[in-house]
Amino acid sequence: MENRIIIEELVANVLSELERLNYAYNTICGYRAFYKRVISFANARDEFYFSEALGRAFLKETYNCTVNYYQEAIPKELKGPIRRIRVLGDYQLHGVIIRRIVKKPGYVKPPQFESELTGYEKECENNEYSKRGLRTRMQRLFFFIDYLDSRDVQKSNDITANIISDYVKTIYKYHEKSIASILTALRVYLRFLYFNQYTDEDLSLKVPKQSKYYYPPVPSVWNKDDVIRMLNSIDRGNPTGKRDYAILLLVAKLGIRVGDIKSLKLSDLNWQSKNIEIRQNKTKNIVSYPILNDIGWALIDYLKNGRPISNSPFVFIRMNAPFEAFGRDANLHNIITKYTRLSGITVPDGKRQGLHSLRHTLASTLLEQGTPLPVISEILGHFNSKSTNVYLHTGMDGLRKCAIDPEEVLKNV
After folding, report:
1. 246 and 180 share one domain
2. % of the chain with per-residue pLDDT over 90
3. From CA 199, how far away is CA 111, in angstroms rounded?
4. Number of domains comprising the chain
């Protein structure tokens, strides 16, 4: 906000905004009591306006807090006081309450490469890469850009095959799958530089290839009884349980990806035709899923009796104020972890039991029932059956039927 107002008025505006955002009564009471102490502290110092310096001084004197909460990890016991001070600062600057504190600044592009990096991001967006995929791709690329900057490379045309080779040596300690991803991102970026005349030579041809065969990991799958046990552990009498139950059913019975569940909108639910039609974030394909009876009733129970009152267009939202969509980086792993523990299911070391593993379980179940791979591929939203082939490793009963009986062979010799 452009004009500063006295701290008492600022506090009153913040408390009013908290009420508008439907923060809990007890939470607002906690803020009010905290801000009374801040106002008393300011009056004792003859200060009439809130400032960063005033907030830091209050935290230091009251809580012995000296951390730079923008750049350093915040001690657990100080998260509450720091959050409340930051709410005052954010509201004074922006006129809004920002939900999360930004602890680390974003990546700063070296100025000598800023033009081509911005152009590359724009091309990826034009190619409709998912936001999550683009973020991961750029993060891998920044490793290389930082390396160029540390080598004092001043423009893209100064990149040489030797520099690329030296950089590749720095990533040898990573997992082979990570190395493959980094090299792929590098190869695509260098090709972009050449086609857009940032470099005179196509340096993508200088990026080495891994001389290893592709052995996809065997997916983690759940025991059918454990899935039922986990679902039964959910308390569907409270709003959060209603939401979580509906989410887990959508993953376990329809194989919908987490990203698609987060972006699922109320308008995607066609109750008349009993199906869910969405455009997948990862593949951009339009996919239709049936609203099975148990899924339908779970969604109805959540929407009528569990979902907070909100203008959000998304089906699944946060259960704490402000009631809005899940965060960009939320993977909902905490949901399945919570009910795995409540149901007493023990997860062996090294075995993944996240939400994605429920997709694996669905695929393996369909395979055991004799469903063709192309059909499973379509259900899971894979581009082709190659991605689905890994589930052959989990269908042990099917593989046993393919085994050759040596005695039968010997009879025919």
Report:
1. no
2. 37
3. 17
4. 3
In this structure, the number of other CB atoms found within 10 A of the CB of residue 110 comes to 15
Residues 322 and 366 in one domain: yes
Residue 29 lies in a domain: yes
279 SS3 class: strand
Q: CB under 8 Å to 226, separation ≥6 — which residues?
A: 343, 345
pTM beyond cutoff 0.90: no
Among 172, 206, 240, the domain boundary falls at 206
Task: Locate 259 and state its tokens.
Answer: 């990203």
The Cα 156–Cα 119 span in angstroms is: 13
**Tokens coding 19:** 């009420």
CB of 190 closer than 8 Å to CB of 198: no
- Stated length of the chain: 413
> What's the pLDDT tens digit per position in 149-173?
878 899 999 999 999 988 888 786 6
CATH number of the domain within which 265 lies: 1.10.443.10
Q: Report how many helices (DSSP H) and strands (DSSP E) the chain contains, helices first.
A: 17, 3
Query: What is the C-alpha separation between 191 and 212, in angstroms, rounded?
Result: 23
List the domain range (segments joined by +) for residue 260.
224-398
Residues 152, 161: Cα–Cα separation, whole Å: 16
Partners of 287 in beta bridges: 278
Q: CB 213: neighbour CB atoms within 10 A?
A: 5
Token pair 């969509």 is at which residue? 325
Q: Is residue 2 part of a domain?
A: no
Using DSSP's 3-state secondary structure scheme, residue 199 falls into: coil
Which residue shows structure tokens 């259900």? 379
Distance CA 389, CA 107 (A): 38
CA distance 138 to 136: 6
Is position 406 within any domain?
no
DSSP string, 366-404: HHHTT--HHHHHHHHT-SSTTTTGGGGGT-HHHHHHH--
Q: Does residue 11 carry a pLDDT above 60?
A: yes
Q: Are residues 327 and 381 in the same domain?
A: yes
Dihedral of CA 269/257/278/224: which sign? Answer: negative
Extract the runs of DSSP E, i.e. beta strands, from 49-113: none
Instruction: Evaluate whether residue 389 is within a structural domain.
Output: yes
Amino acid at 335: I
Tokens of 229: 């046990």
Phi-psi region of 292 (alpha: psi -120 to 50; beta: other; left: phi over 0): beta
DSSP 155: S
Q: In the prediction, which pLDDT does 95 show?
A: 74
Whether 121 and 142 have beta carbons less than 8 Å apart is answered as no
